[in-house]
Specification:
heterotetramer, A: 371 residues, alpha+beta, Butyryl-CoA Dehydrogenase, subunit A, domain 2, Butyryl-CoA Dehydrogenase, subunit A, domain 3, 3 domains, 4-stranded mixed β-sheet, B: 391 residues, Butyryl-Coa Dehydrogenase, subunit A, domain 1, 4-stranded antiparallel β-sheet, 11 helices, 8 strands, 43% helix
Chain lengths: 371, 391, 371, 391
């Protein structure tokens, strides 16, 4: 397996992404979006697409950059640092991973559109308040050459703004994955106002009719097609959370170095030093898990499940520890909306739940490790 | 033979009967809904708008009997109740679900400080309007940049003979925008050692030169404000206790506040078992990670409740709580943060929207271990004053 | 309910116990026992009986002191401080609680003997490596007027030295509690060499014949009779663990005040200060749980289950945290056998398992609290 | 076209084949049982008693090829292997379950120090006997009362011209009672600043005036000793590096030791999943408390393993580990303590006897976070040198 260190290319990519994002999409851009009630940022996505990021997992044949998962993680991590809002995970990571498994023309066309920034996707997965992708009550009934969908999907990230939506449904022969326009007749979108100020919606399917070619990969093949995309998404989200943790941690250590209390710099208080040092160690371990998941997804994706769940679990926990300590070490100012730490805390909470919380991934690890 | 204890037991039984009758006759039905929390509070003050006529009636009737501040002396608007009588009053009110007639920083904070440190004149002048809910107070301790270092007060009161001239800024003044008066720590001697040159001063919020600005928190709108003082004139008669010894008053109130916060820190209401609350979440409590954490938090919550009870019993037995209040503050607020983390985790994505979710409460708990003395300050107090560790 | 503060009598009892134990049975006495391979201390038990401790829960009519559970906890706590070895929990707390529920002459005679220090008991409960008192495979078969016992009980505390043994068995009509001589024919004792240097044994019952009057309280009544004794024992063991934690903590803070490193007293390092302060808080909470369990066992024993399990769970966890931090804060010296901290750590480990570990009692709490 | 990389790949393939043949011919069957841990170690030295003839043969054959210290230069008894070759050797040995021919503080600690700081004469004199397992070394750093403050060395070496006169005491000297020589830190200048007046000195344990006494641990017998020096004469030629600059050597070795401890800290052997180990306990892993804790520990263990691999990759990529070794030491040892706590908890009362249980290992792990630099020292190193927090 490739080494667990960043390649030259990855380092360059990371620097370029950091340069672009800290200029064009820092936390202040999220704040400004929130203040005007927006939950997505299509202009920014165009710029990201222009930089090749929308096509990070799309084959060159489909006009993508085909840089692989580890590279996608480098980008996600920088987005995490800056709390950048984009459909990167839903579209460029997950939808792209679904589509590139299909060898047909339609998928190629869609992938070209994604890479060009002209098409965004949302994945409609959850039906309860916890991630549990194989428990599907939404039905797909065969009617004529097509299907009729009935049911509800909740907490669909980017569900308010995405052009298309991938839906896992209970079909006549098992789980089926459909690809339909988000504006389809009978499909009602109830946008949610989330704490992280990003786009999510409940999607209610009432007699939504789709054509036969909306079914991807055949009846009963839905979950097999989806699963690699979920793992790719989980790992990329873990990378985002780790970037988030790194940035929140850096804000905190900077503050420890500059803030004075009782006449001395608070960073010289040993109790805070040790807690900060411990957090650094946690971030180091989590970083290794992220690198490892990236390597496996690129080199041996079929055996990446354990690595992905370790990464998502660790990243979830690390980000939460860091933002909690971040607020506490900042004291009162950390609690004010004026200061950015709250944005990090809120995003960490949403990222903790999306695509499986700590307990879900701990369960996967336990199963893979034989207990 | 009738013993003294029997006599006092009989007296308490009579008292309970009397209270029951009074409550029955005087507590309006609308005020018997057992409501608690922000929306049910009557804060009083000149700008207060009663939520309904019953709220006003209930306040007035209680104030007339001294029941807004039952243990204060009658001379200052209280009912002069003993601890046991006060307990009975609270029990009987709880039994019919009676709302608290009045809550205020005047009752919780300033009152106790005035009773201990105020002059007779100050007590007579300031306490009765607090008891009647006529004057609403806010607290001006913290300053920007001072954080845990409360004694680092910079807001300056310059000596002008009979008055002070006050300049500076306070932060985290709860409800400053709604309060009539403020009690604040001011620097009255810049030459003295840090803890010595501070005075505890009362100021009318309508004074010329005082302005306020609300603070937005990560959890949303908040009662906190920034309060600015620009050439505010304050009569020297409005100093509580000795000039330059305001730190004594502040310390007394800080201990008092820690006890209150650790007592009232449970924003989940009604002491419902955490596990039961979590079990009601849509997906339940079968995940071993969540279940194990909930079990641990439940055990610690019960032990915390027993500790609050033990400390109350100690106080009734005449043992002061003293520095152990730092423990209540620290453990109570940290536990509360843990509980809300668990609630968020149990509710999953259903907890992520702002509306009708615990999200805002969860974010708000993060301040519990900062306001009223950070957890770090509490641990240092315990280390130094209880464990006698050096430095 | 009585207040959660020590009464005058309890304070006096605690002072007297501390005076006696720190003189007659401090840790050095345990060390000396261990070094010569002994696991019990009958001489000391006679002195404790003379002080009235053996009869702490025995009615005055049976020549006991009848001081109640809270008083028993005061004694257990002082024993915990000094790591005093005695059959106090098995005999004076648990066996006494079983026997005082029986209104017959035989039990009265036994209780008199216990109070006088002339009779000790062991409780044979566990059949697996975890406490699970209602899972009983050991059988009691009716034969003539008596019964025949077959099966194995493990980890029987005081099982090597006790005069008699209480055994829970699966009888014809449900669980039965038998009271038999520890030397009975067919009863094989396999002593264990435990890390806490105290008496425990596996007891193997092979065709052990007992008379009909060995059955206490009737067929099927065994667990009802035993349960109050288990709760009494759990609470007293929790009190012992808390005393242990207090003593280990005091050793640690003393060391923090006296030990110098890099030229300064290590107790002035803030990281250690905060950890010590946190431990103090943990001990405070646990102390409340102990007091509460004592009050309930004395005043309303039928509703004490929750309080007892909170006490045992908290005490188990607190003692382990304290001894772990105790060794770490002492550094190398804490690891040497010459120093006493290891004795505290080992006893804390055994006390953690006996009569139900943290998970067992957390399960009870969860059940009682409706989840 | 054949590239340089192809060439080196071919060379490595050839090397692997050669090693395979050599091992097949030279590794005695008894030494192919995959045994590891204390009982299987060959420590060497003059007092060493081989457990069997095969152990001796295996040591001699390896020593003859330089395979006891494969990466040391041939001139000093090594085989001069490159990193890649060394890796292949280890892989091939592992493949047939070959035991390590020789382990010693000479190989792990003194050798690297001599290679970096020793004079040519010292290297030639001391390294080959280490490689051949003829001389067994122990390490004399810690002193009673010094604890984490290693630079607080008090054992004094008085200047006597060509020799030092050594007086004082060391503690925690592993296997001092079995070692032939000791490498120790001695105070050679009492006037100089703490870190400056120290020298790194080699001493023959048979010297007059050296005595040892074993230390009993809470986990039972241990290899640790106290070592006493009373008027011991040592030639000055036995100083490694510059006189009074022994701290440089010590620091180098401390970093080296941390890496080793964090690598070798897993006493549970063979990297078996914790959960699987625990599931095999008699009562299983159904308790949510235990199960949840085991899941967490398993996740952290896997992340730790990935981190060790990442750091190895970094080292191979030429990036030094440096102060990050403090992290490995800290996280590795704390995790190991957690794992053994879990093993004890899972095994319940079955783990409480001394014999045939993990009890002794469990107690032994408590020293992991003390020896080789405490967790507190590691956190301070990270705080200061990596996070650059103020002093």
């Amino acid at each position: 397996m490739a080494k667990l260190i960043k390649t030259e290319e990855e380092i360059l990519l990371s620097e370029a992404a950091n340069g672009f994002l800290s200029q064009s999409a820092p936390v202040s851009r999220l704040r400004e979006m929130r203040d005007r009630g927006a939950t997505s940022d299509p202009v920014l996505w165009q710029e990201m697409a222009a930089a090749g990021w929308a096509g990070v997992l799309i084959p060159e044949a489909c006009e993508g950059a085909d840089m692989g998962h580890a590279a996608a993680h480098v980008l996600a991590r920088e987005m995490g640092r800056n709390l950048t809002v984009s459909p990167f995970l839903s579209t460029a990571v997950m939808a792209a991973t679904v589509l590139r498994q299909l060898q047909d023309e339609a998928s190629a066309t869609k992938m070209k559109a994604i890479a060009a920034g002209g098409l965004t996707y949302a994945l409609a997965l959850d039906e309860t308040s916890k991630f549990d992708p194989e428990s599907v009550a939404l039905t797909a009934e065969k009617r004529g050459n097509g299907y009729v969908l009935n049911g509800t999907k909740r907490f669909v990230v980017d569900g308010g703004s995405a052009d298309r939506v991938l839906v896992l449904a209970q079909g006549p022969e098992g789980l089926c994955l459909f690809d339909l326009a988000n504006g389809a007749k009978g499909l009602q979108r109830d946008p949610l106002t989330l704490i992280d100020s990003r786009d999510a919606a409940d999607l209610i399917f009432e007699e939504v009719e789709v054509a036969g070619d909306a079914l991807l990969g055949g009846e009963g093949a839905g979950y097999d097609l989806l699963r690699p995309a979920l793992e790719a998404g989980q790992a990329a989200l873990a990378a985002e959370s780790t970037g988030l943790a790194e940035a929140a941690f850096a804000m905190t250590t900077d503050y420890l170095k500059e803030r004075k209390q009782f006449g001395i710099t608070i960073g010289s208080f040993q109790a805070l030093q040790h807690r900060a040092a411990h957090l650094w160690c946690e971030i180091e371990l989590t970083s290794s898990a992220i690198l490892n998941a990236g390597r496996l997804l690129d080199e041996d994706p079929k055996s990446a499940t354990l690595a992905v769940s370790v990464a998502k679990a660790r990243a979830t926990e690390t980000a939460q520890k860091v933002v909690q300590e971040g607020v506490q070490m900042h004291g009162g100012i950390g609690m004010t909306d004026e200061f950015d730490m709250g944005f990090y805390m809120k995003r960490a909470r949403v990222a903790a739940e999306w695509l499986g919380d700590y307990g879900y991934h701990a369960g996967v690890v336990a199963k893979m490790r034989g207990f | 033979m009738t013993t003294a204890t029997d006599d006092s037991q009989n007296a308490l039984t009579d008292f309970r009967a009397e209270i029951r009758i009074w409550l029955e006759a005087n507590c309006p039905p609308e005020m018997r809904d057992g409501a608690a929390g922000e929306a049910a509070i009557c804060w009083g003050g000149t700008s207060w708008e009663f939520t309904c006529e019953a709220q006003k009636t209930w306040l007035q009737r209680c104030a007339a009997r001294g029941f807004t501040v039952p243990t204060w002396p009658k001379a200052y608007g209280g009912a002069g109740l003993s601890r046991d009588e006060d307990k009975i009053l609270k029990q009987e009110m709880q039994a019919i679900g009676a709302r608290s007639p009045l809550d205020s920083f005047g009752i919780w904070m300033l009152g106790p400080a005035l009773l201990k440190f105020g002059s007779e004149e100050q007590k007579q002048h300031f306490l009765p309007p607090i008891a009647r809910g006529e004057i609403r107070w806010c607290q001006g301790y913290s300053e920007p940049g001072a954080g845990s270092d409360l004694a680092g007060v910079q807001t300056h009161a310059a000596d002008q003979g009979d008055t002070w001239l006050v300049n500076g800024q306070k932060i985290w003044t709860s409800y400053a925008d709604k309060a009539d008066w403020i009690f604040a720590l001011l620097r009255t001697d810049r030459e003295a050692k840090k803890h010595l040159g501070i005075s505890f001063v009362l100021m009318d919020m309508r004074s010329k030169g005082i302005t306020t600005r609300p603070i937005q928190l990560i959890s949303g709108a908040s009662p906190f404000c920034e309060t600015f003082f620009e050439d505010v004139e304050v009569p020297k008669t409005q100093v509580v206790g000795t000039i330059n010894r305001g730190w004594d008053v502040a310390k007394y109130l800080l201990t008092h506040e820690r006890e209150m916060i650790s007592n009232g820190g449970n924003v989940m209401g009604a002491g419902r078992p955490l596990g039961a609350v979590l079990s009601e979440s849509e997906t339940g409590l079968s995940d071993p990670i969540l279940r194990g954490d909930a079990m641990r938090a439940e055990i610690d919550t019960l032990a915390m409740e027993m500790t609050l009870e033990r400390y109350k019993d100690q106080a009734e037995g005449g043992q002061g709580l003293g520095d152990a209040s730092a423990m209540l503050k620290y453990m109570g607020t940290e536990l509360n943060k843990r509980r809300l983390e668990l609630v968020m985790a149990a509710e999953g994505s259903a907890a992520l929207p702002w509306e009708d979710t615990p999200a805002s409460s969860w974010l708000r708990t993060k301040a519990n271990s900062i306001e009223g003395g950070t957890s770090e300050v509490m641990l240092s107090i315990i280390s130094r004053r209880i464990l006698n560790l050096p430095g």
